[in-house]
Write a structure and sequence with these properties.
This protein folds into two domains: 14-189, Farnesyl Diphosphate Synthase; 192-300, no CATH class. It has helices at 4-8, 12-25, 31-42, 48-60, 65-89, 100-126, 130-156, 161-186, 191-223, 229-232, 238-245, 249-261, 266-279, 281-298, 307-321; strands at residues 93-94, 97-98. β1 and β2 form a beta hairpin. The two termini are 13 Å apart. It has 324 residues and is mostly helical. It has a two-stranded antiparallel sheet with strand order 1-2.
């Protein structure tokens, strides 16, 4: 598998410049805000979203100041949603670091999220980037709808495969789609190309989320201990949905009972995860993941050959081959 560092190479200087500009975009006259935003910048992840923006822009055209603003807008809005998610979920950790609400409590965390949201909106409006604002605002709306749909369905545990794909399309894929669409738009591409790259990002995002869902099961059998985070949170992911759809009536009742009433029981969770493996749920989900990944890759077939295109293809492969 090509490393993320190798994938970054065609746009490496742009990513470094982006990091400088992004820090600048978060600055404020309030010292507490600057302390907290400095903490946020330190704990940044793999930078996959900006990477999608820059590689798409360079594959479709030329990187410009608008591309930097597109990447900053997406990072500002996404960071805001992550902060709010941690408050909603009462999470104390994010990427191995303490979450904002663990360090500064909920009230300040919500206000920081609001501040970042406003910074993103103003960055677009001050530069008349209305097309970018539309792309990213629609993604933010869909992410909220996806979360709420998941919460609603988790209460009744009645998620069909169709609903599952609707949830992950909104919750995860919409953000990656906004990266690739905004990247294309920032390079001055036609509306048709922007639409095509939006779909490319959406398909990639669906494959990315299925890979995420598979981690829960793979880790469990490697260590012999159930992480079972999705089951604990009553999330009906694709391997489990497949197992339910192929179980008889009494098996279905037992599965639903474990998820609904015994999701903290380590032995029962491990039993359920083993059942998912035995039923072929893992292989089925992996097959679907590869289907969406290959569909995304096929959308790049008629793009002109370049180092950026090669890296964009490798980034799609990375999303389904990563180890964490």
């Amino acid at each position: 598998m090509t490393s993320l560092k190798e994938i970054q190479q065609p746009v490496e200087k742009h990513i470094k410049e982006f990091e400088v500009r992004f820090r600048q975009a978060m600055k404020s006259s309030v010292p507490l805000l600057n302390t907290i935003t400095a903490y946020l910048v330190k704990r940044k992840g793999k930078q996959m979203r900006p990477l999608f923006v820059f590689l798409t822009a360079q594959t479709c055209g030329v990187i410009s100041d608008t591309t930097y603003r597109a990447a900053s807008l997406i990072e500002l809005l996404h960071t805001a949603t992550l902060i709010h998610d941690d408050v909603v979920d009462d999470s104390n950790k994010r990427r191995g670091f303490f979450s904002l609400n663990a360090l500064w409590q909920n009230k300040i965390s919500v206000l920081i999220g609001d501040f970042l949201l406003s910074k993103g909106l103003l960055l677009s409006l001050e530069n008349d980037d209305f097309d970018l604002l539309k792309i990213v605002s629609e993604a933010t709306r869909e992410m909220s709808e996806g979360e709420l749909l998941q919460i609603e369905k988790a209460r009744r545990l009645d998620i069909s495969e169709e609903i599952y794909f609707e949830i992950i399309r909104k919750k995860t894929a919409s953000l990656i789609a906004s990266c690739t669409a905004a990247g294309a738009a920032s390079a001055g591409c036609s509306p048709e190309i922007v639409k095509k790259m939006h779909l490319f990002g959406e398909l990639t995002g669906i494959a990315f989320q299925i890979k995420d869902d598979l981690f829960d099961y793979n880790k469990t059998l490697e260590t012999g201990k159930p992480s079972g985070i999705d089951i604990k949170e009553k999330k009906m992911t694709l391997p489990l949905i497949y197992t339910l759809n192929n179980a008889n009536y009494s098996e279905k009742r037992r599965i639903i009972n474990i998820v609904k009433n015994h999701n903290q029981d380590k032995e029962l969770v491990l039993e359920l995860m083993q059942k998912v493996h035995d039923s072929g749920g893992i292989q089925y989900a992996e097959g679907k993941m590869i289907h969406y990944r290959d569909k995304a890759l096929s959308m790049l077939d008629d793009m002109p050959a370049s180092d950026s295109l090669t890296s964009l293809r490798n980034l799609v492969l990375f999303t389904t081959e990563r180890k964490n």
